[in-house]
Amino acid sequence: MKNKHKLLLSMLVAVLLLAVSVYGQVHKFFAPGTVWGVSMIRIHPGMDQAYLEYLDTQLKKESDISIKNGFMKSYKILRSQDDDAGWNMLILREYDSFAALEKNEEKADEVLRQATGIDDQKGMQGYIDRSKIRDVMGTKFMRELILK
């Protein structure tokens, strides 16, 4: 009976040591950084000014409120020089972590609703209006990797 317990304990220790070793190897080359929401946008031909107006008013206001309240760290907008068939703009939003993003989602929605006066119905109408000037090609959440 004692031998079975020793064998089981030995196997458990070996598995734990192996797990620690593998974890150390995974993070050997980088440290995990902040989380970025990356939206790929295709602005319809001739609609640059209309979309830029939205970005400079509503998106900027909402992003600044989110930063001020600690829900978001920063944001960036990148515009490509060419207008091929794919996306031609990236909207990047930086968050502390996936956990912070998920934890603050409902609270951030409520703060933005109060600050902007935009409820679900107005928000949906805004989305429909913007769909006439741009297409959202996709959104991904990505972890920044800080190389060591």
Quick summary of this structure?
The chain is built from four helices and four strands, in the order αβαββααβ. It has 148 residues and is of the alpha+beta class.
Task: Considering the chains and any ligands shown, give keywords for the structure.
4 helices, 51% helix, 148 residues, Alpha-Beta Plaits, four-stranded antiparallel β-sheet, alpha+beta, 28% strand
Write the layout of secondary structure elements.
Blueprint lengths: L1 H25 L3 E14 L4 H21 L5 E6 L9 E7 L2 H19 L3 H11 L3 E14 L1
Antiparallel strand pairs: 1-3, 1-4, 2-3
Give structural notes.
Helices cover 51% and strands 28% of the residues. The protein has 148 residues and is an alpha+beta fold. The protein has a single domain, classed as 2-Layer Sandwich (Alpha-Beta Plaits). It has a 4-stranded antiparallel β-sheet. Helix 2 packs across helix 3.
